Amino acid sequence: MGFENILGNEKVFEQLNRFRTKSAFPPLLFWGRPGIGKRTTALTFAQILLCPKGDGCGLCRFCQEVSQLTHPDLRIIFPLPPRPNNEKERDLETIWRLRQKYALGATRPLIPKNYLIHLEDIHDLTSEMRFKPLSGKKRVVLIIDAERMRQEASNALLKTLEEPQPDTVFILLTSRFSFLPATIRSRCLPVYFPPLTDEMIAKYLYKIGYDEMAVKRALSFAYGSLRRALDFMNNPFPIPEEVLSLAFSPSIPSLLTLIDELRLTDWAETVENLILLFHSQLLKRFGLKDYETSYPEGFTTEELIARIDFLLHLQSDLEYNLNRRLFLFSFLTALLRKGKRK
Ligand SMILES: [Zn+2]
């Protein structure tokens, strides 16, 4: 078993295979786009480190426990919802439910912006670290979406990372490298996960039974991410129709009515999908990719570039914009304006 069932990332596996025999190594920071196998690789590496056979057989009780996140020497820290003010105790049921979504083979959840990693999560970890690993081998700590650590949490973690921990292997995971405090980054060994190639994703999709047309369509949205390709197979129209009609034929009678009628839960996802849609049309236009798309293709090259440019700006605004209505207004008016320019 080990890494051979994971798609791509050969260089990463080589690097990790060199570490498996070492008695201690620096905290690792896995970074790269979402959906390209960071968590799968981290959990597989944990199996390798905790499997009594030393190869992550995937079959023994210990490997199974790692994949189900129930191994006593595997600690997984991930962003949690804010706790209502009057509640002292954590809602363990919610935590348990969320935790299962990070198991090996599970599709990780979309996490709302207000889910964070708190100081007490790090405190729980450090008090546990006073004891030897139960298995007598290693303790593996995975910190998922590490950029979501509150400042006091990352300060506390920093102290832990600064002390040598030969028993404990730290793996921090992030798709937003620059959002992590520089102090944390400088303590870790960055391990970059490049986007998967279209060929890798296509091969996988063919293997699980999709036909050529479906694969070509999914690739136009995958953008190096297997998870995006699989999401697309489940939902081939990831851009809400209202947004799409505005983006392609901008003659909407009442913008404000539209804003009120739209019921979107994840705007970031929608903006990203639009960027990828226009980008894949551009690649096809230049003959660089043989994508198929079920969306209209009526724009000139300049119009496509202008839309991508504007959406990329919007994407960075979205990181900070907390007023949903204001955001929607600027989003939709901008789309409308860009559209009318033709
Ligand atoms: Zn095993």
Automatic annotation (TrEMBL):
GO terms for biological process: DNA-templated DNA replication. InterPro entries: DNA_Rep/Repair_Clamp_Loader (IPR050238), P-loop_NTPase (IPR027417). PANTHER family: DNA POLYMERASE III SUBUNIT DELTA, REPLICATION FACTOR C / DNA POLYMERASE III GAMMA-TAU SUBUNIT. This is DNA polymerase III subunit delta. It comes from candidate division WOR-3 bacterium. The lineage of its organism: Bacteria, Bacteria division WOR-3.
